[in-house]
Specification:
heterodimer; A: 389 residues; alpha/beta; Aspartate Aminotransferase, domain 1; Aspartate Aminotransferase, domain 2; 7-stranded mixed sheet; 14 helices; 13% strand; B: 160 residues; Alpha-Beta Plaits; 2 domains; two-stranded antiparallel ribbon; 6 strands
């Protein structure tokens, strides 16, 4: 009998399993569930982008690409970063194409921190930063963002958490699950602190194309003195509705990128070839698609946020991504109780806020990446549920 | 295109409060705008998209191609306006190409439609010929699928 416990790396054993796995096991077993839980675009990848992938397959382009990604794609990424964020990256040395933004986050963390280092992770946020930090032998230090600050990260939130071991700040904005964005003034203040303490920043900007209202996304790499301290993570999944193609990228200082390419080379070889061909087309001719999808998301966002507020679930106005994060404290239920009851009585599935960090307790995440018809139906059921509570 | 019209043309079943939220306009403005469209004839009506396949004894439908002799002064309008007066006719279009008018006709059964073509339609002055095509199955109408197909978003998985 093999004692597998002794065979398995302690680090992965120390990673907490996702607390909501049980909840979604129930969801998956139920029929006719109206889900508002999924965090990916409901749009199909625009046809011309799919066509570029198909064309490449028809031409038999099925080999590995260079480790860093096709030069043509790195060039387009560099153009895109200039066009959208006014950031200049050398395609030959400051860009790497990865398997989704997720891989980019993983290799960036592994290249930047190790044993004894502390990583500042704002929460509520996407679930991967903490486990990946633990796997890199570093220590996650959680920073809670607060609803009274519209879930923005403030200097005051960070200040007390910095020690002489702090090495990296994760900046996950526009934010999943809250929909919060950072504004230039916030970033300037945080940058001062980052420079003062000689930290690096991992800025996960996967939702950068999806901001609503007058405020466009600003990258912290745009703030003076920050480009050389920031690894920007981005990708095609959310902007171009390309989740299944698994393609992302990172841009940053060439010394860091060199290490990331080295790690990427050994664990991945190269990102999917077909997806890279499609991505070249996306970056060249996809801006109109983004605008169309953004407008649709915006319409849904207003409908959902307005309706939730009307039915008494206070919801701060999300300015980015495609989620809203209503407060359910008024019901007296915990996030998980709320979601479980809603699921059983109305067959509507939301994600408990606690899935995104302890401070997400008291909130639920609702994705509006669904058709208007679907959203309308779900909202009616949520309203009925609240009345029956 | 006007966003309000686009939404209503896809689904008219929103409350004005919902439309106001979606379009970021005051509800009163939405109400006034809809009234204006109705008064000016831009919006001509609202109807449910019924899947008659699922309704017992719902009858049959046919597309009829008509070749007609255009009338002096009024061209095709006169005959088209006569044809549209029949209750059996649900749609009338003037066409470019091999024939002049296309009609969508509803009847209780095939005989019913045949008799309409033979006795009422062909009897009209100016009709040169008719070609009747009975519909076997309706898959999609007015941008709405009438058969159960996989929703585009089915198959998305929860991958938190």
């Amino acid at each position: 009998m093999i004692d597998y416990n002794s065979k398995i790396n302690d680090s992965i054993k120390n990673v907490k399993p996702s607390g909501i796995r049980k909840f979604f096991d129930i969801v998956n077993e139920m029929d006719n569930v109206i889900s508002l839980s999924i965090g990916e675009p409901d749009f199909k990848t625009p046809w011309h982008i799919r066509k570029a992938g198909i064309d490449s397959l028809e031409r038999g382009k099925t080999w590995y690409t260079p480790n860093r990604g096709f030069m043509e794609l790195c060039n387009e990424i560099s153009n895109y970063m200039k066009r959208k964020c006014d950031l200049t990256y050398d395609p030959k040395s400051e860009v790497v194409v990865t398997v989704g933004g997720s891989e980019a986050i993983d290799i960036a963390i592994r290249c930047l921190v190790g044993k004894g280092d502390e990583v500042l992770i704002p929460q509520p946020s996407f679930v991967c930063y903490e486990p990946l930090t633990i796997m890199a032998q570093a220590t996650p230090v959680i920073i809670e963002t607060k609803i009274e600050n519209n879930f923005r990260l403030t200097v005051d939130d960070i200040k007390d958490k910095i020690t002489d071991k702090t090495k990296l700040l994760i900046l996950p904005f526009p934010n999943n699950p809250t929909g919060a964005i950072m504004e230039k003034e916030d970033l300037e203040a945080i940058s001062k602190l980052v420079i003062e303490h000689d930290l690096m920043v991992l800025s996960d900007e996967i939702y950068c194309e999806l901001t609503y209202g007058d405020k466009k996304h600003v990258s912290i790499a745009n703030i003076e003195g920050m480009k050389e301290r920031t690894v920007v993570i981005n990708g095609f999944s959310k902007s171009f509705a390309m989740t299944g193609w698994r393609l992302g990228f990172a841009c940053g200082p060439k010394e860091v990128m060199e290490m990331m390419v080295k790690l990427h080379q050994f664990c991945i070889m190269s990102a999917p070839t077909t997806a890279q061909y499609a991505a070249i087309e996306a970056l060249r001719n996809g801006d109109d698609d983004i605008a169309m999808m953004r407008e649709q998301y915006d319409m849904r966002r207003r409908l959902v946020v307005g309706s939730l507020n009307k039915m008494g679930l206070t919801c701060f106005e999300p300015k980015g991504a495609f989620y809203c994060f209503p407060c359910i404290k008024s019901t007296g239920l915990t996030s998980e109780e709320f979601c479980t009851k809603l699921l059983h009585s109305k067959h509507v599935a939301l994600v408990p806020g606690s899935a995104f960090g302890e401070c997400g307790e008291g909130f639920v995440r609702l994705s509006y990446s669904y058709s208007l018809k679907h959203l309308k139906k779900a909202l009616t059921l949520i309203e009925e549920f609240l009345k029956e509570l | 295109m006007d966003k309000l019209l686009k939404i209503l043309s896809e689904n008219s079943n929103y409350t004005t409060a919902q439309l106001a939220l979606m379009l970021d306009e005051p509800e009163d403005y939405i109400k006034a705008q809809i009234k204006e469209y109705e008064d000016s004839g831009v919006i001509r009506g609202y109807q449910a998209m019924v899947n008659w396949e699922n309704v017992p004894d719902a009858g049959v439908m046919a597309i009829i191609e008509l070749k007609v002799t255009p009338q002096k002064e009024k061209g095709f309008d006169e005959i088209a306006e006569k044809v549209m007066m029949f209750d059996e006719v649900s749609s009338v279009y003037l066409m470019a190409g091999g024939y002049d008018l296309a009609l969508v006709v509803k009847g209780e059964n095939i005989q019913d439609v045949s008799s309409f073509v033979a006795k009422k339609l062909s009897a009209l002055e100016g009709i040169v010929s008719t070609a009747t095509h009975f519909m076997l199955k309706r898959y999609k109408e007015g941008s709405i699928a009438l058969v159960d197909v996989e929703e585009p978003t089915d198959g998305r998985e929860m991958v938190l």
